[in-house]
Structures are given as C-alpha cells and as structure tokens.
Design a protein that fits this description.
- The chain is mainly alpha-helical and about 270 residues long.
- Helix content is about 50%, strand content about 5%.
- Strands 1-2 form a two-stranded antiparallel sheet.
- The radius of gyration is 28 Å and the shape is elongated.
- The N and C termini lie far apart (about 75 Å).
- The C terminus is likely disordered.
C-alpha cells in the first residue's frame, strides 16, 4: 500500500541537490556548496585572499574587514599581510622585528605612499601651468610646449595618473591645458596619453571644452570638438547657469568661438549611417 506524500515533502524532494565542487584545498572543499560565499571567504588560504586583495583598492579592503567578525579576523593573518607588503611595497625594506602587526604596518605604509603620490601629482600640476620655484619662465602648458609637458609627465613614471584631480585647484591635466589654450598639448594628451574621458569635469564641473570656451581659446576648442567633445553638457558657476560651452563663450564675449561651437557637427560613424 502506497502512502501519500504531503505537498511540502514533495516540493522538498523535487529540489535537486548540488554536487560537490572539486577543490584541491581540503579546508575549503566542504564549504563550497554553501550559497553564502561571504562566510566562506575568510576560510580561504592566505595566498588566495592576498591575490584577491591585490586587485582591490585599499578603501575596499578596509570595508571588507568591517563586514563581520569572521572577516575582521583577517587582520590577524600575518602571512597574508606580509605577502601584500611584498607585492605592493616592493621598494620598501621590511623590518626584521616589527613592533606592530603586519596589518598595521601595511596600511601605515600605504597611507604614507598615497600622501606622497598625491603630493607629487600636485607638484606636477603646478609645474605644468605655473611658474617654477625660483625661475622666471612659465610651465610648458603656458607656452604650449609638448616636449616640456612630456618631460614632466615621464618623471612620475608608472605612478602617473593623467586623470588625477587636484584637491587644491580642482583641475586635472587636460582641463588645465584647455584653460591655458595649449592646443598642441591638448592634441598630444588625447592621442598619446590614457585620458579616461574627453569630457572629464574638474572640481567645478567644467569640461575641457567649457574651459576653453570660457577662456576664449578658439584653436583649443576646435581640437576638442574634432576629438568628440560634447557641446550639450551644461554647468553652473556662481549665479549663472547651467550653460553650455557656447553659452559660456557668449557670456564672456567670445562670439566667434560660440558660433564655431554651434556650427560644429560631429562626424557620424558608419554604424550610425
């Protein structure tokens, strides 16, 4: 005689069970079937976690350590932080008898390195546009010197970030070149350097095209338009706005520049045609 199975039991039996995932690490193979991967992450080997951390910025690592008690326990895995120091602070000599935990040493050195990195970029922006300390000549952006700009950019080596926005002036390199009317330098930045976006705004919200229009540099504005800068973006400044690049040019009395921006028609790609 067959016994009827309740609906709840039928539905539970109908759910397929996941097969174990093969894994060479015996400590983690038993928990790979758990749907909550966050609980399993702290159980991974140190070298695996270190490899994940190498791909993340430091602020993301700090947030991960605050998820729960299990994740916070990663602070005490000394081998993990030592491997991160070797990977990210290769030029720094490690202490033989550290007085602090490797976790504390890692973030202390990274914060110091970050401050030095920002300071070098701030000095770079000042050197590009302003007067050099103790010298009378202006920076290469003021004179539109491509060779001088290349020299200063290459001095930072692999640490260079051309999209860095200054905390002091609120400018980045492309927007600063547009403000100075450095047409050749703008063309060089767009063609040979990893600029993230031609419409990257500064701290005031001005794009490079709007900066060129505001300052009245017709040649620089043409280069930006030909490279695909957007004309429809609007920005407010003070009590005026939001205005487009052409409208800012008219406000400052640059009528020819405003007409040039309005008359420009972006080239259509073959897919759009």
């Amino acid at each position: 005689m067959d016994v009827a199975v309740p609906r709840r039991q039928r539905s539970e039996r109908a759910v397929p069970q996941c097969s174990p995932v093969p894994n060479s690490t015996s400590d983690t193979s038993a928990g790979m079937n758990d749907s909550n991967s966050a609980v399993l992450f702290p159980e991974l080997p140190d070298d695996v976690i270190a490899q994940v951390f190498r791909e993340l910025p430091d602020d993301a690592i700090v947030k991960m350590l605050q998820v729960c008690t299990a994740w916070s326990g990663l602070r005490h895995r000394e081998d993990l932080w030592r491997s991160l120091i070797v990977a990210r602070l290769s030029t720094w000599s490690m202490p033989r008898r550290p007085r602090k935990s490797w976790h504390a040493i890692y973030f202390e050195r990274r914060c110091k390195g970050r401050r030095q990195w920002k300071y070098r970029h701030e000095i770079l922006l000042v050197s590009l546009a302003g007067k050099k300390p103790g010298k009378a000549q202006y920076g290469p952006l003021r004179t539109d010197s491509v060779a001088g700009m290349r020299k200063l950019l290459r001095e930072l080596g692999d640490d260079l970030d051309v999209n860095f926005v200054s905390d002091v002036s609120g400018n980045h390199i492309l927007n600063l070149a547009a403000k100075c009317g450095a047409t050749r330098c703008v063309r060089e930045l767009l063609s040979s350097w990893p600029v993230s976006s031609i419409d990257l705004p500064n701290a005031d919200g001005f794009t490079p095209l709007q900066d060129a229009a505001y300052a009245g540099f017709l040649g620089t504005a043409r280069v930006l338009l030909q490279a695909g800068a957007r004309r429809d973006l609007r920005t407010s400044f003070g009590s005026k706005g939001p205005l487009t690049a052409a409208e800012w040019a008219r406000v400052k009395g640059h009528r020819e520049l405003a007409d040039t921006i309005d008359a420009h028609r972006p080239k259509r790609s073959r897919t759009q045609e």
